[in-house]
Amino acid sequence: MDLLPKVFRTEGNIAEFDPTKIYESLLKETGMNDKDARHITELVVRRIISIGIKFLSGPHIREIVCSILSEQHFEDERKLYTRIGMPLMDYEEILIKGPSDKPHKWINPEKIHHWSANQIAEEYAHLRVLETEESRAHLAGDIHINGLNYFVLRPFSQIWDPRLILEHGLPPTKNLKEYYKYSPAKNLYSALYQLNKWLELMQNEFYGNQGYIFIDTFLSPYLSDLSEMEMIKEIRSFIYENNLLALTIGREIPPISIFSSISILEGLLNAPAINPGGRMKNTYENYQNQSIQFFKALLFAFRKISQKDPNLSIPKNYVMIDSKFMNLIESIFPKFLEEKKLIGSFYFSTNNPNSYRFKHLEYLLKSKYHNYGILQNISLNLPRYAFITKDEDRFLELLKSKLLLCSNVLLKKYDIIKKRIDSKHLPFCGLTVAGGPIFKLENQGLSVSLVGLNEAIKYITNYDIHENLEAIAFSKKILTEINQLFLELSKKHNKTFILSENLSEKAINRFTQLDLRSFPNEVKFVSNNRSYTNSVHFYENADINLMDRVKIQEDFHKYIHEGAITFISLEDFKRTSLNIKDLLSKISKESKISNLKFLVE
């Protein structure tokens, strides 16, 4: 024992070196048998004596043990025994400059803590949660597990029914005795304030997009005798507070989504209306005029903001369009379709019956309130599968194997979040209100999204999607195969597997850069070194007639369960006899387009 060094402990004192602690920790942490644990401990002691170290720390001892585990080919045990963290110089780099992959982002102390913790959480997911094949698929760029740093802690996205807060106040529970509780809002200002604060609270438990459904309908009883200018002022404050949310909580968050419909949907007309103070009075049928007034105020609030900053992305304003919308919009603001900046600040949604949102809309119309979302999303690198396989049949086989791998990861996430709710590590998600949980696992989608369908098609067929009927047919075959497999998986596991629009720019950039290293000639052929196209979109400057673009895209949208969107540049209208009104009218009546966004040059 005289040959062994002293040990600095994290508690701040110095202790004698004790080999039994290594032996016991090996048994506890790695599950190895007694004989192997004793052998590794003996080798560690011999190594320490032989190199003549005078002082050791706990982390240093662990490094030596991990080195010997690797030398003795106990690689799985080494993964279980290793420490997680970051090199000292990496942390100092973040302290000085922020993370290297986000040089343009706002830096503050909270974000520095956040970025540092992210690395630990991501390493933990690789070492203790994912199987080796799953981890390698992510690291290599075959797939991208979005928000891997949150994988063991948080669900992804959630769309909230505003009535949860309007009826029960903030927070919507009586069990938080150590915190003050807001009573249900008595006016529009308080209602919008509480809705914003709820999103702020829930950013502690979700890492992706959140939002509210039909905000104009559910706030229509709160307008009272407010003038149009007063309504606009309150809505602008709501938007500004929403926009500042990322600064308030100290980390990046995706844009908040708010959904409106200008006219109250038929299924909600007879629903009991929540009035100021959380009181039930009348049905929403009694507030149709107020709902239109609210939408008009929302329209003018966004108009003022878009004139000041057309690039504002928070919140995202989705408006549901149908034949009623087209008639009403001209009565409340005839110039709506002529103002480019204003048009560009809206996302236009339809009641596509194939969409995940439409399914939950049906639940919403039947229940008192209904919240739903996506539990986890994984992006697929389609061009890489094409580069590896080079023909249609082998491509579909490889795609299926990656989808099955993703399904295993998604099922892991489901089980993890269930445990987090049971252990109360997601306290608000675990709340019960009016006899039921506010966050229901059965209402969450297990989501996969696509990157680079166009590039994969081009490599296999020699054509971009829009250039050839065979390319379009093979694209639909791929989407049909995915849908069929997800239908089978949903029935087998009693879960909801869905195909979504890809929301991760990081996944697109990461796939492109990794493939440029491994498949430089192939990437140059399919994209001329540009970033891969997102989801099922064409490349940006594709030479295709506007209505042909819409027609092909709407055929693809029926396969995308959540978030499918078509982008149309307003410049495209210069090359066609069609105008914006005609296009929206056509889409509202007969198109299967799920979402449409006009791009302002």
Structure commentary:
Helices cover 50% and strands 12% of the residues. The chain is α/β, with parallel strands linked by helices and 601 residues long. The protein has 4 domains: 6-81, no CATH class; 84-123; 162-338, no CATH class; 358-599, Anaerobic Ribonucleotide-triphosphate Reductase Large Chain (Alpha-Beta Barrel). Helix 18 (392-422) runs parallel beside helix 20 (469-493), helix 19 (453-461) crosses helix 20 and helix 21 (505-518) crosses helix 22 (520-527). The termini are far apart.
What attributes characterize this protein structure?
alpha/beta; 601 residues; 7-stranded mixed β-sheet; globular; 4-stranded mixed β-sheet; single chain
Strand-helix topology:
Layout: E1 6-8, E2 14-16, H1 19-30, H2 34-51, E3 55-57, H3 58-71, H4 75-81, H5 88-97, H6 109-129, H7 132-140, E4 143-145, E5 158-160, H8 163-168, H9 188-202, E6 210-212, H10 215-218, H11 228-243, H12 245-249, E7 257-260, E8 272-275, E9 279-283, H13 288-308, E10 316-320, H14 323-332, H15 340-343, E11 346-349, H16 356-366, E12 373-381, H17 382-389, H18 392-422, E13 432-433, E14 436-437, E15 444-451, H19 453-461, H20 469-493, E16 496-500, H21 505-518, H22 520-527, H23 546-557, E17 566-569, H24 580-589, E18 595-599
Parallel strand pairs: 1-3, 5-6, 6-7, 7-10, 10-11, 12-15, 15-16, 17-18
Antiparallel strand pairs: 1-2, 4-12, 8-9, 11-18, 13-14
